Amino acid sequence: MSALIDLSIKGKDGKYTNYTISISDETNQWGQNVTMYLRQTKEEREAKQPKKYIGNGRVVWNSGTIVNAVPNDARVEHKESNVEESDDLPF
């Protein structure tokens, strides 16, 4: 896997739903390399609960470089261009 994207979408009710988008280095048998699923909590990941998949797709363009965003959140430290995970990240 080459990238994970943490995404929140605001619904009509004003509440946010958190998702994870996984971008793989390889394509599957249908030419797809992107998967989107509901973000799991740390407890769900540790319990090996199955992911709730939303859909699949493919990258259709990129600039060749993906840059990790550094949150303005004190719970996450920035270390040599790698972002350390906090307790609520999906990976």
Q: SSE layout and pairings?
A:
Elements: E1 3-10, E2 16-23, E3 34-38, H1 42-46, E4 53-57, E5 78-79, E6 82-83
Antiparallel strand pairs: 1-2, 2-3, 3-4, 5-6
Describe, in plain words, how this protein is organized in 3D.
The protein has 91 residues and is mainly beta. It has one domain (3-83). The protein is built from 1 helix and 6 strands; from the N terminus they run βββαβββ. A hairpin with a 5-residue loop joins β1 and β2. The protein is globular and about 30 Å long. It starts with a strand and ends in an 8-residue tail after the last strand.
Major sheet description = 4 strands, antiparallel
Measured as a percent range, the helix fraction is under 10%
Q: Spans with pLDDT under 50 lasting ≥5 residues? A: 76-86
- The class by helix and strand makeup works out as mainly beta
Please provide the ordered H/E string of secondary-structure elements: EEEHEEE
- Give the strand line-up of the largest sheet: 1-2-3-4
DSSP strand count = 6
Overall mean confidence score, pLDDT: 82
Calculate the terminal CA-CA distance, rounded to whole Å: 11 Å
Assign an overall shape.
globular
